[in-house]
Amino acid sequence: xxxxxxxxxxxxxxxxxxxxxxxxxxxxxxxxxxxxxxxxxxxxxxxxxxxxxxxxxxxxxxxxxxxxxxxxxxxxxxxxxxxxxxxxxxxxxxxxxxxxxxxxxxxxxxxxxxxxxxxxxxxxxxxxxxxxxxxxxxxxxxxxxxxxxxxxxxxxxxxxxxxxxxxxxxxxxxxxxxxxxxxxxxxxxxxxxxxxxxxxxxxxxxxxxxxxxxxxxxxxxxxxxxxxxxxxxxxxxxxxxxxxxxxxxxxxxxxxxxxxxxxxxxxxxxxxxxxxxxxxxxxxxxxxxxxxxxxxxxxxxxxxxxxxxxxxxxxxxxxxxxxxxxxxxxxxxxxxxxxxxxxxxxxxxxxxxxxxxxxxxxxxxxxxxxxxxxxxxxxxxxxxxxxxxxxxxxxxxxxxxxxxxxxxxxxxxxxxxxxxxxxxxxxxxxxxxxxxxxxxxxxxxxxxxxxxxxxxxxxxxxxxxxxxxxxxxxxxxxxxxxxxxxxxxxxxxxxxxxxxxxxxxxxxxxxxxxxxxxxxxxxxxxxxxxxxxxxxxxxxxxxxxxxxxxxxxxxxxxxxxxxxxxxxxxxxxxxxxxxxxxxxxxxxxx
Length: 590
Hints:
Distance between the termini: 40 Å
Number of strands: 15
Shape: elongated
Helix content: 25-40%
C-alpha cells in the first residue's frame, strides 16, 4: 500500500510540473512464467511530459491488477506496477503516429504468501496513436516486461486508452505544427493544447489565397491596419485519412456442440437372489393304525391273521417320509444370508483405481505394496541416477502390475546451486530420464507425465551438502481418474461425488497426506476457455473433498485445459474420457 501512495504522489507531482498529456488505460496481462498465473486484467493511468530532439516524451505510468490468481500456490493477490518510460514517435500521417518505448519499473505483489516476490523489471514495446482531433488520440500499446530477479521473469501487457491534453505543455503532435503557426503569425504566442482543443473553428475566410500562398500574410500592413488579419487563418484542412478499420476480432466459432450420443448404459446385472429352496413338504405321518382288538371268537375264526400282516406293511413308508426332515435345519437360513458380504465388498473400476493409487503412494496403506520407493536421486549437475536407486523403476512396475488406469507423474527437482533457469531445465531433463527408466521396466508411456520444478519445494535444507543431495531428486506420484464430466459442464456428477466420498473415507488415519485435484478438458472450444473450464472442474472436486471432512489446506486444485489428453479427441468416446479430474496423493517428505 505504501508503494501505491508513492505512485499517486508522483503522478500528482508530474501533473503540476508541465504535464501535457494524460492517458487512462485498460487492458490485460499474459504471464510467461513458472508460477502459472492466470491471465488477468489491468487498469492504469499515464502522464507524460513533452521533450525535444531525439526523445519525444517522458512518461510515468501506474497499472493495477486486482485479485490475480497464483494457480500453483492457490492464492489470490493484488498487483501494483509503477514505471517510467521514454517514448520516440514516428509519424506516418497527420493523424497516425507509430511509437516505440523503453523503461523500468517496480512490481508490488500485495500477498507475500504467493509463490513469487515483488521486484524491479525492465520493459520495451510499441504502440499506435490515432488522432481524432489535433490533440485527442486513441492509443493502443503492447509491452514485454522482464523481471530482474524473480521466478516469474516475463509478462506480456496489452492496453488501450485515450490520450487527452492536460496543463500547458506541448505534445509531440502539436510540436510538429509549431513552424506553421510561427510563419503565419510571428507576433502571436503559440496557443496551448487546451486552447486548441477548446477553441471554436473560425469562420471560413472568403478568399482562401492566404492559405495557398503565405506571402500576403507576411506583409505587416494588414496586421497594423486592422486587427482582423491577426486572427489565425483557417488551418489547412488536410483530407482526413480514412479511419483505420481495425479488423473485427476473429470470433472463435462457438464450439460445435455435438449431440452427446445417447449412451444407454446397460442396466447393472442384478445377481439373482439365491433361490430359497422350498422347505420340503413334510407329509403328515399316518396315524398309527390302531389294531382292533382281536375279537374273541371261537377258534375257527382265526383267519384274519393275513389281514393283520397287510396293516403292518406301511411301516417302511413311514421311515422314508421322515428322512427329509434334516433339510429343514438352521444351515439353510445361513446359506441365504451368506451372499450379502460379497455385495458390500464389490468395488467399481474407479474405486479400485483409487485403492491402487493410495497403496502406491502411502507407505503402510496396504502391506501388499512396498510403496517406499518413490524417489530417484542424482549427483550434482548430473543426469545419472544413483546406483542405490537403480532398481526403483522395476519395483514400481512390479507394484503397478497390469493396471492401465493408474497415472504416473515424475516431478523433477534440483538443489539451489545455479541459476533458476538452468535448474528448471535440469529438473525437466531428470524427470525425462526417470520416464525412460519406467518405460524400460514395462510401463506404458501413455501413463507417464513429466514436469520440472527447479529448486522449488526442497524437502531438506540447502545449507548443507547432505540436504542438497536429498533435494536433487525426481519424485514419482500416482493418480487415478475419479470423475468424468458432461460436455461443457463443471458440475460434479453423482458417480464422481461417490468416488470423492470414497477417497475421504480412505484417508481417515492418514492426516498428513495431501491431495491434488487436476482438471482436464477435451479439445472442443478455445484453449483459454478449456483452461478455465478444467480449473472449475478441479475446484468442484476440491470443494466436495472439503465438504466430506478433508482440511482445505491439504487439497490443491489445478487446471490443465486440453494439454494432457488421456485418449484421442478424434472420437466421442475419447473426448468423454478427457473430460475428467485426476486425483494425486502426496505423501509427506522423507
